[in-house]
Amino acid sequence: MKLDKPVTGGPCWTELGTSDLAAAKRFYEGLFGWRAETDPRGEAGGYSIAHLGDAAVAALTPLYQEGQPVAWNVSFAVPDADAAAAQVTEAGGTVLVGPMDVFDVGRFAVAVDPAGAVFQLWQARSFPGAGLLSAPGALGWVELLTRAPERAVEFYTTVFGWSVNASEHYTQWGLDGADFGGMVTMDDKFPHEVPAHWLPYFAVEDVDTTAADATEAGGTVLMEPTSVPDGPRIAVLRDPQGAVFGVYRAADEK
Fold first, then answer.
1. What is the mean pLDDT of the chain?
2. pLDDT(254) > 50
3. Are residue 115 and residue 205 in the same domain, yes or no?
4. 131 domain residue, yes or no
5. Which residues form the VOC domain (predicted)?
6. Are the C-beta atoms of 173 and 133 separated by less than 8 Å?
7. If you average pLDDT over residues 63-74, what whole number do you get?
């Protein structure tokens, strides 16, 4: 079972903060077939929503704060952003921004888990989040990379009530029987300066073709297309501005 729409506690949205919004639009529009529309209101700060057909699937934004890294960020749906932010703090995390209202569309906060991975909380009002999940060109999986996996399990199960499906090689997060993400332990292969982080994966029709297209468009392949035993085919890519993301095709999609 996979998520095809936002549910409480699950990933509902992903945003790219980038140093070159126009270039990022061109890259992802070419890679995924997105149509990006920038909110014309000055107070929106250049916030751009990418669509597939009529469905909103992701956002691309300028960097809003000094020192903000070029990176993809993942948002999780909550019924009450203020209560969720308080729970983050009680569980040992930190709230960096908010909670605050975003026009009439929702209320959000930016938080960091005890190991340093940043994520966002989204309380929907008129905007529930992605109109499409787990379809080609849309968000379909989120992965936590951390150096403190046991602490992460304690933190996220407390804050969001996730189920944990752990095997020898990989831990998966789930809600009501639907696994939506996983966790990788960062070992010595990861440079020390790379912090814990959440990595979004976008579904694609063909992982190998997408990786080749990303390279041709100025991106970089960080992990070559690989078939996970009894699992999906995946690759990890970096866009021309430096943001890292994954792509996948599920094993059962022939």
1. 94
2. no
3. no
4. no
5. 10-124, 138-250
6. no
7. 90
Question: CA-to-CA distance for 190 and 158, rounded, in angstroms?
Answer: 27
173 and 239 housed in the same domain:
yes
**Same domain for 23 and 58?**
yes
Strands, sheet with 71-77, edge to edge from the N-terminal-most edge strand: 35-38, 48-52, 55-62, 11-18, 71-77, 118-124, 106-112, 94-102
pLDDT in tens, 8-67: 999 999 999 999 999 999 999 999 999 999 888 887 788 899 999 999 999 999 998 888
Q: What is the CATH number of the domain that holds 64?
A: 3.10.180.10
Give the Cα separation of 185 and 223 in Å (integer): 16
How far, rounded to the nearest angstrom, does the alpha carbon of residue 8 sit from its chain's CA centroid?
Answer: 16
SS3 state of residue 14: strand
For residue 219, give the nearest of 245, 194, 201, 191 by alpha carbon. Answer: 245
Q: In terms of domains, do 244 and 176 share one?
A: yes
If one counts the domains in the chain, the total is 2
The two three-digit tokens of residue 165, written as one number: 């499906």
Q: Is the dihedral of CA 193, 197, 201, 202 positive or negative?
A: negative
Would you say residue 129 lies in a domain? no
CA-CA distance, 222 to 252, in Å (whole number)? 25
Is the N-terminal amide bond of 69 cis, ω within 30° of 0?
Answer: no
DSSP annotation string for 49-115: EEEETTEEEEEEEE--STT--SEEEEEEE-S-HHHHHHHHHHTT-EEEEEEEEETTTEEEEEEE-TT
44 and 71, same domain (yes or no): yes
Domain boundary, last residue among 124, 150, 180: 124
